[in-house]
Specification:
The chain has about 150 residues and is of the alpha+beta class. It has three helices and seven strands. The strands form three sheets. A three-stranded antiparallel beta sheet has the order 5-6-7. Strands 1-2 form a two-stranded antiparallel sheet. The protein is globular and about 40 Å long. One of its GO terms (biological process) is cellulose catabolic process.
Length: about 150
């Protein structure tokens, strides 16, 4: 679960789930990136969420009956900038034409079951030498026209 992959130009939320039956993990994840799905002015310098300012990101994992044993059905984030609360950009995976691999692997329910087995929160800074982080804030995949839906990412 990548809760927040970001720089000052863009942000992505990327759950990676695995199936129990065949052990196949979702290497690429099912990312949610507001720039990639059409909201190019949501997060960045002097945008709705202004990365020139101090911001706090709140991510909530929501179950239907507010117990620790129920099925996870939603993950939502919002931003706090000063005393202003900013709702996350409304994005849709269908806008980019990408495969919704999260749902192919039982979606949030599978992720919720994994949370039940205990997890550790880890903060890391990293680089991607294979794709040069283009999947976060560049045109990706690089072999597709930048004007194609979902290619421009930030």
């Amino acid at each position: 679960m990548n809760i927040w992959e970001a720089n000052y130009n863009t942000v992505a939320f990327t759950p990676h789930v695995c199936t129990v039956e065949d052990g196949a993990s979702d290497k690429d994840g099912c990312d949610s990136n507001s720039y990639c799905t059409g909201d190019a002015t949501f997060l960045g310098q002097s945008f709705t969420v202004d990365t020139n300012s101090v911001i706090t990101i709140v991510t909530q994992f929501i179950v239907s009956d507010n117990t620790s044993t129920d099925t996870l059905f939603e993950v939502c984030s919002f931003y706090v900038e000063g005393d202003i609360i900013i709702s996350n950009s409304a994005v849709s995976k269908t806008a980019s034409g990408d495969t919704n691999s999260l749902e192919d692997r039982s979606g949030l329910a599978q992720l919720g079951r994994a949370f039940g087995d205990s997890m550790v929160l880890v903060l890391s800074l990293w680089n991607d030498h294979e794709a040069n982080m283009l999947w976060l804030d560049g045109d990706y995949p690089a072999i597709v026209s930048p004007t194609s839906p979902g290619v421009a990412r930030g």
